[in-house]
Design a protein that fits this description.
Layout lengths: L2 H14 L1 H31 L2 H5 L3 H5 L3 H22 L2 H8 L2 H37 L10 H28 L2 H13 L9 H10 L1 H9 L7 H25 L3
Length: 254
């Protein structure tokens, strides 16, 4: 089977699983809802802030906090690309049709990226639009797409989410089950939200080096690391996870 044929077969399997299509649509709908909710919360916080506090107010970061929640269903998409086959017992048949494990994993990674990227673009852009519209409607300052920090977010934010979908795919191969892979990905991705209540040394480490925290802070223009490191560290982490998934997949029965 050719590479294009394998990819078409993967798309057929992906689109035939109702949960994957529902999750893709839900990711976009949830992004719009979180944009409105956090946009409203940001407007309320800005109205209550003092003049000095408003000088340091991070409108973009505060209004786009929903990214830390939208990442969960998008990572779940990647999980399902692998785990749905294990759950249905069709992985052996897929291997027999493709012939090589590396080709099958590469096809699933390609499909994950091709599906997650447009979903991520829609999610980030819609969240931004609803958040800023909510801020404007409340009479608070808002940010336009031409501003450097906003442009960076709109261009690189979807890439960050797509990388997290590939992280989910790797977990799907490593854990071979939807529930354990989703539980691990959710726990891992939400750890940065607990950094503020962790001991200072732990919180500082998470803020600097935790892959999704570093990537989001870089995309939002608040990275403590240089841009190349802010994006490079998460990319290297996802690449390492995919490599581990390949080794595991290659050396274990389907």
């Amino acid at each position: 089977m050719t590479g294009a044929g394998v990819l078409r077969a993967e798309w057929t399997k992906f689109s035939s699983v109702r949960a994957t299509m529902v999750l893709a649509a839900a990711s976009i709908a949830v992004a719009a809802a979180f944009g409105m909710l956090f946009g409203n919360a940001t407007a309320t916080d800005y109205a209550a802030a003092t003049a000095q506090e408003r000088l340091d107010f991070e409108l973009l970061m505060e209004s786009m906090r929903g990214l830390y929640l939208v990442q969960l269903p998008i990572a779940g998409l990647g999980v399902l690309v692998a785990s749905s086959e294990y759950g249905a017992g069709t992985m052996r048949a897929s291997l027999a049709a493709v012939g090589r494990r590396g080709h099958l994993l590469a096809a699933k990674a390609g499909l994950t990226a091709l599906v997650a990227l447009p979903v991520s673009v829609a999610a980030v852009w819609l969240m931004y639009a609803t958040a800023q519209s909510t801020l404007a409607a409340a009479g608070a300052p808002y940010l336009t797409p031409g501003e450097p920090d906003v442009l960076r977010l709109l261009l690189t934010g979807p890439l960050v989410l797509t990388a997290l979908a590939l992280f989910g795919l790797a977990l799907g191969f490593l854990l071979r089950g939807t529930a354990p892979a989703v539980n691990v990905s959710t726990t891992f991705l939400l750890i940065p939200m607990l950094a503020s209540v962790a001991p200072e040394v732990v919180g500082d480490f998470i803020g600097l080096y935790w892959p999704n925290a570093t990537a989001f802070r870089t995309a939002l223009g608040m990275a403590p690391l240089p841009e190349w490191a802010g994006y490079g560290l998460p990319a290297a982490f996802v690449a390492a996870m995919l490599a581990a998934a390949f080794v595991h997949f290659k050396n274990h029965d389907a």
